[in-house]
């Protein structure tokens, strides 16, 4: 599948990884619904992109992804405006160990809900034309992230759900490929959250330890995350894949030693 002429919906689109993903999709010829909670950042993002790509290629939708009706409405507006939906990137995420329920709501529940709403529009069983879904997890979803236990749990959940629903899509002939992208530390505003006691709670005292981990692993530029995303979109052979991106190895995949292949 190639992005040219396709319609994408990206959550958390206004800055950081989301912004990088939007830019590469526009470069590849897609039209995009920019879904973000922050109206100021969202509109600034759209204006900036419109200068380069034209206003007809983007649609900004303010949306709290934890609100089911708002999220459903974002998909509805996207399809009404562009006429279709081909690519979904569930990217919105937070790090908040103090308000840990919010972390689960944003990082996991909204990803599950977004995937299901996306399938309602794209699945061939529902009259859709197929497509691809990429759920953004993290290396913290493959190894325990010390001092961020709930963030880690949410990202583990994204991987488990995405692999399972990818298998269901294959069995059910949905025509939709579902893959997961797991970056290490990325140079985004999310990194700054470790400096805030009101976000880190009892783990705030370990902020220097987390900074040490960042120094050890290195910080990725969002552009390489966008490159990984395009690989997942364009390789029609990938379904249920878990892509990892690190400074040491670049783009590579998690090798699950005992893959589960359900019987049809």
UniProtKB/TrEMBL annotation:
Protein name: 15-hydroxyprostaglandin dehydrogenase [NAD(+)]
One matching Pfam family: adh_short
A GO MF label: 15-hydroxyprostaglandin dehydrogenase (NAD+) activity
Catalysed conversion reaction: resolvin D2 + NAD(+) = 7-oxoresolvin D2 + NADH + H(+); resolvin D1 + NAD(+) = 8-oxoresolvin D1 + NADH + H(+); lipoxin A4 + NAD(+) = 15-oxo-(5S,6R)-dihydroxy-(7E,9E,11Z,13E)-eicosatetraenoate + NADH + H(+); prostaglandin E2 + NAD(+) = 15-oxoprostaglandin E2 + NADH + H(+)
Signal peptide positions (record): none
EC number annotated for this UniProt entry: 1.1.1.141, 1.1.1.232
UniProt-listed PROSITE patterns: ADH_SHORT
InterPro entries: NAD(P)-bd_dom_sf, Sc_DH/Rdtase_CS, SDR_fam
Function: Catalyzes the NAD-dependent dehydrogenation (oxidation) of a broad array of hydroxylated polyunsaturated fatty acids (mainly eicosanoids and docosanoids, including prostaglandins, lipoxins and resolvins), yielding their corresponding keto (oxo) metabolites. Decreases the levels of the pro-proliferative prostaglandins such as prostaglandin E2 (whose activity is increased in cancer because of an increase in the expression of cyclooxygenase 2) and generates oxo-fatty acid products that can profoundly influence cell function by abrogating pro-inflammatory cytokine expression.
Cellular component terms (Gene Ontology): cytoplasm
Alphabetical keyword list: Fatty acid metabolism, Lipid metabolism, Oxidoreductase, Prostaglandin metabolism
Entries under Gene3D superfamilies matching the protein: NAD(P)-binding Rossmann-like Domain
Family of this protein: Belongs to the short-chain dehydrogenases/reductases (SDR) family.
Keyword Nucleus: no
BP GO annotations: prostaglandin metabolic process
